[in-house]
Amino acid sequence: MTAPGRRSSTFTRLLRHGFTDPSAAERLLDGIELTPVRNDPVLLEALGATADPDLALHGLVRLLEAQPDPTARQELLDTLIAAKPLRDRLLGVLGASEALADHLARHAGDWQALVTYEPRDLHRGVAEFEQGLAGATDPVSLRVAYRRCLLSIAARDVCGTIDVAETAAELADLATATLRAALRLAEEDAPEDAALCRLAVIAMGKCGGHELNYVSDVDVIFVGEPASEADETKALRAATGLASHMMRICSETTVEGSIWPVDANLRPEGRNGPLVRTLSSHLAYYQRWAKTWEFQALLKARPVAGDPALGGEYVAALQPLVWQAAERENFVADVQKMRRRVVENIPVAEVDRQLKLGPGGLRDVEFAVQLLQLVHGRADTSLHSGTTLDALKALAAGGYVGRVDAAQLDEAYRFLRSMEHRIQLHRLRRTHLVPEEEADLRRLGRSLGLRNDPVSGLLREWRRHAAVVRRLHEKLFYRPLLDAVAQLAPGETRLRPDAARERLVALGYADPAAALRHLEALASGVTRKAAIQRTLLPVLLGWFADSADPDAGLLNFRKVSDALGKTPWYLRLLRDEGAAAENLARVLSAGRLAPDLLMRAPEAVALLGDGDAGGLAPRGRAQLEQEVLAAVRRADGVEQAVTAARGMRRRELFRTAAGDIVGSYGTEAQPAEADQGALVDRVGAAVSDLTAATLAGTLRAVVREGWGDTLPTRFAIIGMGRFGGHELGYGSDADVLFVHEPRDGVDEREAADAANKVVAEMRRLLQVPSADPPLIIDAGLRPEGKSGPLVRTLKSYEAYYRRWSLAWESHALLRAEFVAGDEDLGRRFTELVDPLRYPAQGLSEEAVREIRRLKARMESERLPRGADPKLHAKLGPGGLSDVEWTVQLTQLRHGHAEAGLRTTRTRQALAAACEAGLVSEENAATLDEAWVLATRVRNAVMLVRGRAGDTFPTDPRELAAVGRYLGHGTGHAGDMLDEYRRTARRARTVVEELFYA
To answer: What does the mean pLDDT of the chain come to?
Structure first.
């Protein structure tokens, strides 16, 4: 007897053997069922070797209790102690699967299925499983027989007799045998239907690929044909009845549970299409309507049940189409988009626990392998395998994947699949989530051989293998392209040149030969630069492929690398700062403007990082002015000063453009900016502030060069149009008015001459040809237009506006805002024009009619010949002009009474009009959406083409790049144009109501 307070020796031994509840285990061992063997060390050792000794012991007691009599119980105990194979198998299953323990408790004699240990028992196939299911006469007995067969697979799996790939293959073979048995039962129930048709069952997905899980939907497609002289309609109806019955036999829940769901949704048209089609109907669908993912799914198609000849005809007819899928436009983009969509649909709470769908999960490996099979399988039949690991091995053997990468991926995939198997085996439930409870993690870790600290060991190994998959699944596609042009280690197989070109074309490269030359220049050699670039390029190539112009991205990267490759900070930036490399790839492949700005001063690439020198957020006007004025003070002469100001403008234009591109495309860490209006406002404010700072610096430089510290006249620059409205685009001119006021004692002629010289010199210096983009100053909105003086005094403006001002000038002055020069003079100018733009009595009907006439004339006269009005972002119906004139008419009418309307910014004025009840919320939202979209179109055209434009490009690549910037995936340019037309049409309806009514 154990002394009080002391633990028994049995308790201690149980702890040592891995039991977590030794007290409960002690009670079970002391029970009557285990009396004959309770002190047998063999039993305790065997229980301690299982994944969960407590669960195994509890399951064994339940099995013994279920035996029909003492003789049967003794037979089980004797065999358990005497036969090590049975002991390991039975206890292994009981310690890993609560569900199979339940089955054994219900069917107490099924343990006998684990006794045999013949060579043929080690690797069972379809024939053996068909034999095991042969006695099933109804759905219930089929389930019992299925579980008995499953028991034998699980036993050999947990004992390590078969590995994870063999386990998956046997599960697929058992599914094949089960489908055949279910179809046999369905035909026996409806022999008249069976006589009318030929029906073939095609396995898809993991069953078709010979890599099934313990619990998984079994994906199938049905093909039917009339038998002999039967009518096709009747035959298809009969085949549909048989197929439906077969699915129910497998899927429905009975007293013995269900087997697994049979899913036919991979068929043409999915659940909306007929369950059974003829072969010709299948072929017609795939030839005309099938999407890329449907050909990807057909990689695993395999006839498994029904008419074998018809199944063979189906595969023979469709396989050639599978290997032509890589020739489809946007093939790689479609496959990658499908993968992204899968990840995006994972509930946030599950992402970090997803073995299958999450980043670094099983689906990453499967997608990458399938992508490579589709690209290269047309020319290499050795890749025609539906099994992931077999296909990966073939890809490595053919040089399509590096051997080391393939070996690491194989190891990671096997580990992740083993985790998935053991998680599902526990309760035979369909799940791909890593459990959270410590007891579940402990059992899972021990089942995978991690006996010392199984929980932390499991999590550590899982994270390690997931990290390998994350690192390799993109690299897998691109790394061999570098190996094709670089020196390889001895024994490595090189990707053939034709295969490399094939892969580049699939990625969207229009000139694969040039791309290979760039890769060779970047990756060859033994320098530190080449080594770092070899590491970076596989990821960069993926980002380039995600753009509309991968060729430009790679070429531009080579140019930047040639310019900066010997600079230590550049390579360190790309290697060490997570955001820099991806930001650079996005910027270099998004169009011409940003790369052109960067090539003129490649050191601006530092802005793309996340360190102290980086940051793509635009800088404010005060900060910009401070920098440019300091540069002007340090400069030797006006030319050098303005060169410094223009250099600052170029750098900040690049910062703004890069931030806009990255915000529009999104990155792996940060999704695309959802608020399109915020992007537009950010760009407009940034470019306007930058233009104002450049003008301020140029003004200071010109004055200092010609007159020292003080100009003979006070001088101010008034921003007009988009400049005054803080809405400049990348290609916008700076619309301005110039106003001056002679200083005390200065002759008016002298003051006017000085002011005109300042303007002339500013315009010249800002347009001198150089590496920096010019800044065009446009004073066309001044009184009397181009016929009037370029510069006026404040008194001259006052006299003109008092006597001669026209309606269009009041309209234009709505945007007037001081931007540079003498701040007091600028303030007095805006006070002068306020009564004109916000008239106290509003607008007369005659003035309203005049504004409408001007608008109509502009629409008819200024629209370029041959342009499609419906796609003209500025002058077309529902474009910028429509929205702005509508908002500005509201400002002219009500600005005096409503303070919120007294703003130069379109969106702010529209919001104020809505708040004041002058425009309904619905109409305001419609106008705002159209204005934002049209502005984004103009910005996109400038970013893509490198020159300003108001219409969508006609070149397909440029159009695709505009679409990518606007959030439309590759291949969806038509959707983009349709969206623009719809948005503009709705806005035009509102304009007709508010402006012309």
So the answer is: 91
